[in-house]
Amino acid sequence: MLHSDAQEDEAVCLLRELQAASASGGPESACELAESFLRRGAAVALLQRLRSGSRATWAVAAAKLLEAMHGLALGRLRDAGWHVAGPGAHAGALRFVHAVTGEEEEDPELPGKLRSWEARLLQSLALLAAPGECDVVYHRPCCGSGILLEKTGCDHRAQQTVIDIVADSEDGHGTSRLRQLHAGVFKGTQEGNHADWDRSRPPDSMVEPWKEVTAAGLALLLVAMEEGGSSTSSSEAAVLVVGVGAGALPSFLGLHADHIRVDVFEPANERVHIAQRYFALAATGAFEQKPRGKPGKASGACKSSRKNRNRVCRRWFGKSLHKGFYKLRAMRCFKELLAAQVLPKLLLKQPRSCQILTDLPLPGAGSSYAAVVVLGSSIATGEALDLPALAKLLTPRGALVLQAEGAVCARSLAGRLSSLWGSGKVTQLTELDLQEDPSDDSTAPQVLVAGPELPTLSTNQWHRYLQAPCAAFRPGVLDLAVAQRTRVIHVPNLLSDSEMAAVKDLARQGQRNEASVEVRSAPTSDAWKVCFLQADGLFESAAAELKEKLTSLARSIGDQQGWWEAAEATPESFNVRVAEYYSQAAPGPGLPDRRHFDMDSLVTVDILLSTPGVDFEGGEFSTLEPSGALLAHSFGRGDAVVFNSHKFHCVGPVTAGRRHVLVVEFWRGPSRRCPHRCRSLQPTCPAEPEVSSRPGLREAARGAALLPFRLASVEEDDEQEEALLGSTPRRLKLLWQVNDMDDDLPQPPTCE
């Protein structure tokens, strides 16, 4: 974007306008004016000028305007009782304390009508403007010639912006670099129509957020059902993606389902260019870039050819080798990957390129799709969506999958889809949100699926078509809603003093193997340590009697309480998944998540090995009941609490002393001997001691076609009466779970 002296004067003029509005109409009048600047795209334009090194005066003018706008947001917070208490966790962030409640927050919520994206963006301007926190990688305004977009005559939906931001890692430890593509006016890093890429992983390794995972999961399920129900068809399974977005969906399908042909209908040259250049989309077709070299051969050695370097660096970092500084930086990254001995693995598995189409294919045998996925960006940009034409491209068992932003958009699309097949052939999907403060359903993303033969969308169906072919076992657990209605059973004096002493001796043996110990309070402290007693078969061999005692207890209570799937007796396969020895010292974090549950396990047994009030204070075990109340369960030394693993539970922080607990989870899978809480549904975990030292067995244990995620839980929406009568679409809530991930998946070195 070109700058001029007029633009420099524009920043100064905008600042004077704010000052005049504040003087004449007060701070709220100035806030409204600042929010109008944001609605006209000022945030990205100012951030871009702030990072510009061409003229210092541009950066100074932009900085002053951003500071003034953020100052108005601080004034609003003061009026609401929030005062600055000090710096926050990130550069530019602030920590606030409420004058009345004493509550501390880094991003306090404003009351009532002030809860808008404009108000939230005003609050975050200081964080975005801090050095290194947000970089504008690409920005093309849709209209206007200066900082502000045109006030009338344009809806600004065609604007495209790519930014790099610093985000907290998913595990809560450290930060990662996140690249985002924003379509339309930039509304903040968590707002508006945007796509994300965590640059600590290859762009095709995983899809996120929920709406992307749901679209990918539905497409894979529809293809699997098509292949499973049509054994006579010799045509290649195909998926059509309408709108390229950031390229995450076609890239993911190209890597994890390379037997599927993926066509992408995208008539806009610029969007394809952005996906290829900034998000490493592998694509062919009308807008194909220069070839990146042929796929690497399956050999143990890795040739350091320019083609291989280009392909690997582009996949990991979104850029090829260039001259000058960028070439030196990419070469350093390539050498670090080579030294880590991970390049052969990267070169062996290359994503299949998608085919870019500038026109929709004509209906016919050569262009029949098991799934047609319409990305939210295509709907948000107001492009004409010819649903009847898309429906004609489906196979007889195919379905349309549409992303919708919010309830209003979802209702509109549901009505149009119902006119094609009837409301009984339309399903509305939202996220099963387990957070304490779930997002507002009216603005939460939704996905709609419609077609002549809809999938039932159950965990059993997902397992049948996508897990069982990979030799994965079925967890067969209670749905979350049912599990919350189960009771916690208190078993007093389960273990004797000698049995508890034997458990502590077992823990001392296990702690000799450093791989069997995990610090769950890291990196802030080592207060909470966990020793995995099942590692290397220690629990099974050295505590066989205790294992049988606990297994019998868990089975019998599960039978009595009916904790198994409907009309099922005790599961034939019922084994120890993990045996954890907890050592929790004060001050410790506890397990604060009130909606925590032990995914994929059937029964959990907690045995207290310390005396409350003597050995420790705090550490209360509680469950979240269906009423929303938190119910504390008191149990003493040697006592046990036995509960359905999918019941929400939490543990309070230990405030004094040290708390020791034995936690044993049982599941349908085989007894594990790996040094962690195993998430693999394969017959053998890749980290089993007899497998981990043999690469060939490790690859077989992972499952050649196992996906990174799976459908974990499905719940009917609370308001389903009309849907069950067929007058409105069926509404479901979906929860996705990460499958066993490759612990050896190489992480790219820093290349910034």
Automatic annotation (TrEMBL):
- Per the record, the domain of life is Eukaryota
Q: List the Gene3D superfamilies hit by this protein, alphabetically.
A: q2cbj1_9rhob like domain, Vaccinia Virus protein VP39
Domain Fe2OG dioxygenase span(s) in chain numbering: 573-670
Transmembrane feature ranges? none
Protein name as it appears in the record: Fe2OG dioxygenase domain-containing protein
